Hints:
The chain is mainly β. The chain has one domain (20-119): Quinohemoprotein amine dehydrogenase alpha subunit, domain 2 (Lipocalin). The chain has one helix at 2-16, and strands at 26-34, 37-48, 51-58, 61-71, 74-83, 86-97, 100-107, 111-119. The protein has an 8-stranded antiparallel β-barrel. A hairpin with a 2-residue loop joins strand 3 and strand 4 (61-71).
Amino acid sequence: MRRLFLLATTAAIVMSAPLLGADITGTWKASFDTQIGVQNYTYTFKVDGSKLTGTAKSDNGEVQITEGSVSGDDISFVENLNFQGMELRIVYKGKVSGDEIKFVRNILDMFMEELTAKRVK
């Protein structure tokens, strides 16, 4: 009976492991071309379980990220940026692979941009 309990407990832990978020806590940088020119970003992430918080800093200012989540290697969050007096909702969806995150960001449900952020060591 005890052996069966240990096997069931171990199986439950192993099966739930992919649901835990990737360890992306720290600083990440990205530089990428956009319709308004090259954008340079520094992202600072903090993960608590599946919740993601932090900041997105660019030449256009620094904002707190919202709606952040991490599930396995998948990451998503929202950057609410004020660009020249215009509020922009930028939705990020990405995939973590080691010290890189490949993102697709959707701006105002109109423009899609791809970028790669790299961990700052």
